[in-house]
Write a structure and sequence with these properties.
Elements lengths: L29 H8 L3 H15 L4 E11 L28 H13 L4 E6 L6 H15 L4 E5 L7 H8 L3 E3 L6 H4 L8 H13 L3 E3 L2 E3 L5 H12 L7 E6 L16 H14 L4 E4 L8 H10 L3 E3 L3 E2 L2 E2 L3 H11 L2 E2 L7
Parallel strand pairs: 1-2, 1-9, 1-12, 2-3, 3-4, 4-5, 6-7, 7-8, 8-9
Antiparallel strand pairs: 10-11
Length: 340
């Protein structure tokens, strides 16, 4: 006489043997991710917090600082971006910063508690000479004992290797949106261009920082589609910045309706469940969230923030407010190497 063993089914899937072709089968179908979004809020938060605790100390948050080392004048038409030259946003184009200027900014960031220093340059695709100059900036920051990250646009063959040789730890190149929404936001580059740059970064042995932006008018299914693209990268990114649209006067999305804050928290939770070992970072838009929503994001699995009063060209909560919030929550900042 046989008996049936009943088991609870969870959406945190057990590890399976990799297929012969890793791209042959999607690990997270869009439908499964959309089902996570549709869960009752308490159930989604419980699942996300459970996954988070399995992989990280839930009381620790990484502090990263982002510096715009070359601002404005970008030829792209990203509808959210104040650095696009075609939009009248009041952002003035600048030349690439000198190493001594970056060293001072990086030292200030380290003194304020940052452990990762990210450098952003508003290029569509840097030239060889640009890469050599950024490599020098990477060496400058690395000498201070900080983790380094750069976001410079699309990379050509050999660029990632040059940056890796200089000591670059992470390269940021966001997918921005789901593929079926991408053309509504950007027309000056293809989705495949972004994937090609990520492949070059991976092949050079540089860790990937890759996320997207929500609140640009996409549907929930399209938010699920963005997370699916990220989670099904092989491997998924080590660092996943989730941005809430910052509406800037002069950009086409300046009058976009606000995203429900709970929907943003849901996006954080779903990213945590589908990419359990990634650092999920609260990025742009924190200034508009308020402390309560940020606290919910930490509960949902966010464990990294951009720290400092500015993100490239838009505002960010001041450093004192961030430290005070963590103290109120009984949480602490920590260096990446202290995490599992």
């Amino acid at each position: 006489m046989s008996s049936v063993l009943e088991q609870a089914v969870t959406l945190h899937r057990p590890r399976q043997a990799a297929p012969a072709n890793p791209q042959a089968a999607a690990r997270w179908p869009v439908e499964a991710i959309e089902a996570l979004f549709d869960l009752p809020f308490p159930e989604l938060m419980h699942q996300a917090q459970t996954v988070h605790r399995e992989n990280f100390d839930p009381t620790r948050v990484e502090f990263a600082t982002l510096l715009s080392v070359k601002t404005g004048g970008c030829p792209e038409d990203c509808n959210y971006c104040p650095q696009a030259a075609r939009f009248d946003t009041g952002v003035e184009a600048t030349k690439l910063m000198e190493p001594h200027e970056v060293r001072l900014a990086a030292q200030r960031a380290k003194d304020a508690g940052a452990t990762r220093f990210c450098m952003g340059a508003a290029w569509r695709a840097p030239k060889d000479r640009d890469i050599e100059k950024v490599a020098e900036l990477v060496r400058t920051v690395k000498a201070l004992g900080l983790e380094t990250c750069a976001t410079l646009g699309m990379l050509e063959d050999g660029h990632a290797e040059t940056l890796q040789s200089a000591g670059l730890d992470y390269y940021n190149h966001n997918l921005d949106s789901a593929p079926d929404f991408y053309g509504d936001i950007i027309t000056t580059r293809d989705y495949q261009d972004r994937l090609d740059t990520l492949a070059r970064v991976r092949s050079a042995g540089v860790k990937v920082c890759c996320g997207g932006i929500v609140g640009m008018g996409e549907t929930r299914r399209q938010r699920a589609g963005l997370v699916a693209e990220l989670a099904n990268l092989t491997p998924y990114p080590e660092s996943v910045p989730i941005n809430n649209l910052v509406k800037v006067e002069g950009t086409p999305l300046a009058d976009q309706a606000d995203l429900d804050p709970f929907e943003f928290v849901r996006t954080i939770a779903v990213a945590r469940i589908t990419m359990p070992k990634a650092r999920v970072r609260l990025s742009a838009g924190r200034q508009q969230m308020g402390d309560a929503v940020q606290a919910l994001c930490f509960l949902a699995g966010a464990n990294s923030i951009f720290y400092g009063d500015k993100l490239l060209t838009t505002g960010n909560p001041d450093t004192g407010a961030d430290v005070a919030l963590l103290e109120r929550l009984g949480m602490t900042r920590s260096a990446p190497e202290l995490q599992p």
